[in-house]
Amino acid sequence: MYQWDFNFLWSYRWLFLNGLGVTVGFTVAIVSLGLVVGLAAALAKLSAFAPLRWLAHAYIEVFRCTPVLVQLVWFYYALPILSGIEISAITASILALSLYGGSFYAEIIRGGIVSIDPGQPEAAAALGMTPFQAMRRIILPQALKRMVPPLMNQSIIQFKNTSLVSVLAVPDLLYQGQIAAHDSYRPLEVYSAVAVAYFLLLYPLTIIVRQGEKKLSTSD
Amino acid sequence: MDTQSKIEIAGLRKQFGDLVVLKDINLSVDQGQVVALIGPSGSGKSTLLRCINLLVTPNGGQVRVGADSFAFGPGTKLPGTRALANFRAGTGMVFQHFNLFPHMTALGNVMEAPVTVRGTPKAQAREKALALLAKVGLADKVDEYPSRLSGGQKQRVAIARALAMEPDVMLFDEATSALDPELVGEVLGVIQKLASEGMTMVIVTHEIAFAREVADRVIFMRDGVVVEEGPARQVIDAPREAATQAFLGHFHRGGAAQPASEAI
């Protein structure tokens, strides 16, 4: 029977905290960038200008239909060769994960926008609003309310996806865990601790999302 | 074109795919006049109304409201979004399903367009909105969200919202069709008040008795053409065309119930 011993983990606390900081920082970066990209792609896909629609469609489908791990590796190893621009592992990770997340955000945002009653933009237009004003003042505020739960869900997935950057030797929580595991020869305790750390961060978030969904279903 | 009239429609055509909805419509409405558009569903009256403020883009013909004129058809350029927005800001529209903005209070709904479109200072827009809501009898509901209002109250907010842009022309698209019967009167009352104040209005309605009472002219449409038009009482009380007679035969007039059996 395996003898569990978690006490030694304490000596790696700074390593873990460091990794946790990188993981959280990465999540904030890829969620915010992904939302910007996703909003742009969603609006492009709803555009009256056909080439813009095709471009958005191509982007969304390419990134939704290839594994995110493949994208990470491709951005780090293939893109520099093709473009001739050297990029760091961190840049490649942020680029790949933001674009990957953006493709899912785009579909959520687009779905939220098209779910709004066509009478709303029509009323806005009848009052003399430009399409841009109608989007900003009338449609997006209503659509956003419906989008928040799925966007939060997708962001939780994005949080977990940051663990993949460890394959590019970005020192996130999992990568630091690997170091601690090799150093201590106790991978069972280390990876269990890493799993618990992810869970403790994410579980409260899922509760917030669920409450948000409940609140949404009782209003309007 | 006649420059005396407020609204001038000439040779208007509209088709959706192969379906021709409006065939060569000509219409002119004088300043302060109230025109009622009546006719069976699918007759094109709502589409015609939406062509007046260009919510629907015609395939051909000319549309003029006040000094703004647009031509459509081969060889003409479609108006840009700015020009369209400016044009629509001068015409108010009231919809069958109200289309209030659910994320704003009654007051917010009425303030929205003056603030966003015209850049009116908020305090000034607020004062105006409060006065308009009082005018439609909703001074006590200014802070309510649309979901807490009855259909009749919603529609009165929608009228106040349209009036906030100080339009030259008001368009009503079956404004009472989605209302419970007991709530129709309060909305018709507001429309009647606007008529007596001299607002130029085009009203698509199934309220024949109301059209007879309030409209100066009635236009009967069927299958995308104007079948008959004339002074309201003349068209409703003594229609000349068989189609108009058949259509009006569906309605009970004078408050007395009539057997519906002789209708087609």
Task: Give an overview in words.
The complex is a heterodimer of chains A (220) and B (264). Chain A has helices at residues 13-45, 50-64, 68-83, 89-114, 119-126, 131-161, 173-184, 187-218. Chain A has 220 residues and is mostly helical. In chain A, 79% of the residues lie in helices and 0% in strands. Chain B has 264 residues and is α/β, with parallel strands linked by helices. Helices cover 35% and strands 24% of the residues of chain B. In chain B, the strands form two sheets. Chain B has a six-stranded mixed beta sheet, with helices on both faces. Chain B has a four-stranded antiparallel beta sheet with strand order 2-1-4-5, with helices on one face. In chain B, a hairpin with a 2-residue loop joins β1 and β2. In chain B, α3 (106-118) packs parallel to α5 (151-163), α4 packs across α5 (151-163) and α5 runs parallel beside α6. Mean pLDDT of chain B is 90; it is low at 254-264. The interface between A and B is medium-sized, with 20 and 30 residues.
